[in-house]
Amino acid sequence: RILELIQKDSKHKLEEIARDPSVNLSIPTVRKRIMNLEDCGIIKKWTVILDGKKLGRDVTAFIGVDINYNIPGAEKKIRHKLVIMKDVMAVYHMAAFYHDYMAVVKTKNTSTLEAMIRTINRFRGVKRTRTVIVLSAIKEETAFSMF
Fold it and tell me: 87, 113, 127, 141: least CB-packed within 10 angstroms?
């Protein structure tokens, strides 16, 4: 229950969590449990969720990247380059799919997206990319359902 509460709003005060009827623990106990969740890596980091559109990131896209495995070291270098790109929000290594990697991008407009695609296609060892542009997000969650 503590995880559910802090996923909904990480600004919850320890007192509020401790008083919640489904938690009903002392403040020091809640603090210790949260510290244990951090120590064992269940809570990876504390962050905020920003509204991309309000910050000028109007385009969300998925860029599938195919790797030429005949070029030694290409996969590792491409993966690193994708990870450090400014507008790349996530990179997934795919199995049983059309692409080796999938990059999730939130960028300013279609011109910046086009520039990103050109850049990725110039990476040594990229066979091809395919891009899907999101028209609207029906559901975007960051929280796990605990029960």
Answer: 141
CA distance to 28, 35, 65, per residue, from 19 (Å): 12, 18, 49
**Distance from C-alpha of 89 to C-alpha of 108, rounded to nearest angstrom:** 13
Q: What SS3 state is found at 35?
A: helix
Looking at residues 70-97, what average pLDDT do you find? 94
Nearest CA to 126 out of 61, 81, 62 is that of: 81
* The pLDDT of residue 51 is above 90: no
Give the DSSP per-residue string, 55-89: GT--EEEEEEEEE-TTSTTHHHHHHHHHHH-TTEE
CA–CA separation, 20 and 106 (whole Å): 37
Report the chain's terminal Cα–Cα distance, integer Å: 9
